[in-house]
Amino acid sequence: MKRVLIIGATSAIATACARLWAGQGSEFFLVARNNEKLEQTAADLQARGALKVTTYNMDATELAAHPAMLDSCINALQQIDIALIAHGTLPDQQACEQNVNVAIQEFVNNGTSVIAILTLLANQFESQRCGALAVISSVAGDRGRPSNYLYGTAKAAVSTFCEGLRARLFKVGVHVITIKPGFVDTPMTKGLHLPAVLVAKPEQVALRIVSGIERKSTVLYAPGFWALIMLIIKLIPGSIFKRINI
Question: Taking residues 77-85, what's their average pLDDT?
């Protein structure tokens, strides 16, 4: 039986992961800002075998609300075996270029709020001296591309933070895994013109995440072929990279 905290619990990838853990008879503390979807997710997990589901309504960008959420989680679960950080938004890059307030808010959505939550969780896990912190970053953080560099910047910050955190917590028996999905068929990507052959289903990504946590992977591309794609993209010389649109 696992005790699982999920931030951004109503996202497609998080829900797919939770369903797999529910089938193993896990206990959950689910956090999301949409209370109606949160309750629907909780009911779904209970029907799939979850032993216990506690819900908590919170907007992750309200940084001052994080400590009370974590206190409630510990009261409900006693200990966290797995924490999955899965919240975020997909910004309109052009809007970010035109309005500094939009740019900053999107960075808070995808970067600052994640780092703030991880800072609190890291101390909790350090005191436990066990458990796994799984953080959804993105392949977009591997290199700044003109089509989404605000989003990529936030995700690069998260990935770098996780790398340092992994080295810190390894010494006390806590595992940190950075998850880098590529294109995934979710409401967040609806309407985007994406190459169908590269678009994965949330269930595919969830299987890889759950197994990756079990294997104690460090950096997990999902699906795995994105590791090769991003290696090629990172190897493109800057003199050429700035001339192409990707």
Answer: 97
φ and ψ of 147, to 5 deg: -75, -20
Query: CATH number of the domain that 103 lies in?
Result: 3.40.50.720
Largest distance between two CA atoms of the chain: 55
Residue of 169, 97, 103 whose CA lies nearest to 135: 169
pTM: 0.94
Is residue 245 within 8 Å of residue 147, measured between CB atoms?
A: yes
Does residue 55 fall inside a structural domain?
Answer: yes
- Which one, of 152, 142, 136, 141, lies nearest residue 231 by Cα? 142
Count of domains in the chain? 1
Q: Is residue 37 part of a domain?
A: yes
Active site residue 151: yes
Residue 246 counted as domain residue: no
Handedness of CA 147, 11, 69, 219 (dihedral sign): negative
Domain membership of residue 57 as a residue range: 3-241
199-223: pLDDT as tens digits = 889 999 999 999 999 999 999 999 9
Instruction: List all residues 6 or more positions away from 98 whose beta carbon is below 8 Å from its beta carbon.
Output: none
Does the residue 219 lie in any domain? yes
- Dihedral sign for Cα atoms in the order 43, 48, 49, 53: negative
The active-site residue, picked from 56, 149, 151, 221, is: 151
